[in-house]
Specification:
This protein is an alpha+beta fold and about 325 residues long. The chain has eight helices and 17 strands. It starts with 5 loop residues before the first strand and ends in a 10-residue tail after the last strand. The chain binds ligand PPE. Ligand PPE binds next to α6 and β14.
Length: about 325
């Protein structure tokens, strides 16, 4: 990671190096954080943040689930802060990481009396699953770890602590020579990757596990569903059995970091033709077209960073 100049902290900009917290902060000891991952893309009309308002809303929802009802900043303030951060750091394309955490004060499990701190950082982040992944597809495994069971850690919240489970999935996959792991939910059905939602294509239909199957309500997932609708490809949110991964025509991931990444094998079983399939390719074309400004932003997904910057491709 290459540092940028500034980080937003509780309403003001501080130097990257200054963004430090005490070791006895609640978040360090008990994992008390909720966060987002957002991409800002370079378009011919200037930098634009992808689905900014949806990400801010999800972060506030995550905070609410953890009884952080009032984090001290409105959705509008946070959205504006993110645009300002991109401007202040003179970035064109970057990844934004807003994080809300319980800071230093009391010690003990109850965090309600600890101060809430809000930070937003940004930096340049390249391809999440490797440079060739979008075109070639990745080799993944089904994890031996189960995703968060219902009513344990709430999956609709994007909380730091959830990523302890993600880390187990990811490390196991990497150590065994895969790019990523797919976790099953507590009932043994397909859930999601360590940092991606998952889609299966069969007979011209797209299937994806429903909210409630312990998946994160992915914003790229939502975008894929919208794009598929536009292409006339039916999407069904339904239980996906593990073995469907092996016999599907196509399987692919979606996520802010991973964007749309085809999966070419699962557990060393070739998926479809063992390379990016036509549905993933069509969806990528639509997705990359919009984010790079070569196709009209017909869903209003891009928030321009600079004032007066309007002309996305029409
Ligand atoms: N599931 C999980 C568990 C997840 O972490 C992500 C995003 C998604 C689904 C996709 O959600 P969305 O980004 O809203 O489409 N993972 C983020 C974290 C990556 C990281 O390693 O850090 C991301 O893609 O930014």
């Amino acid at each position: 990671m290459t540092p940028t100049e500034k980080i937003w902290h509780n309403g003001r900009f501080i130097r990257w190096e200054e963004a430090k917290i005490h070791v006895l902060s609640h978040v360090v000891n008990y994992g008390t954080s909720v966060f987002e991952g957002i991409r800002c893309y370079s378009t011919p009309a200037g930098p634009a943040i992808f689905r900014l308002n949806e990400h801010v809303r999800r972060m506030l929802n995550s905070a609410k689930i953890y009884r952080m009802e009032d984090i001290g900043y409105t959705a509008a303030t946070l959205a504006e802060a993110m645009k300002e951060l991109v401007r202040v750091n003179k970035m064109d394309a970057c990844y934004l990481r807003p994080i809300v955490l319980r800071g230093y004060g009391e010690i003990g499990v109850n965090g309600l009396k600890n101060p809430i701190d809000v930070y937003i950082a940004c930096w340049e982040w390249g391809k999440y699953l490797g440079d060739e992944a979008a075109a070639e597809g990745v080799d993944v495994c089904v994890s031996s770890w189960t995703r968060l069971a219902p009513n344990t850690l709430p999956a609709l919240a994007k909380a730091g602590a959830n990523y302890m489970n993600s880390q187990l999935i990811k490390m196991e996959a990497l150590v065994n020579g895969y790019s990523e792991g797919i976790a099953l939910d507590a009932a043994g059905h397909v859930c999601e990757g360590s940092g991606e939602n998952i889609f299966v294509v069969q007979d011209g239909k797209i299937l994806t596990p429903p909210l409630g199957a312990s998946v994160l309500p992915g914003i790229t997932r939502d975008s894929v569903i919208a794009l598929a609708g536009g292409l006339g490809i039916p999407v069904v949110e339904t239980i996906v059995p593990r073995e469907l991964l092996y016999i599907a025509d196509e399987v692919f991931f979606s996520g802010t970091a991973a964007e749309i990444t085809p999966i070419r094998s699962v557990d060393r079983i070739t998926v479809g033709k063992g390379r990016r399939g036509p549905v993933a390719e069509q969806l990528q074309k639509e997705f990359f077209g919009i984010i790079h400004g070569s196709k009209p932003d017909r869903f209003g997904w891009l928030s321009p960073v600079h004032a007066g910057q309007t002309a996305m491709a029409k």
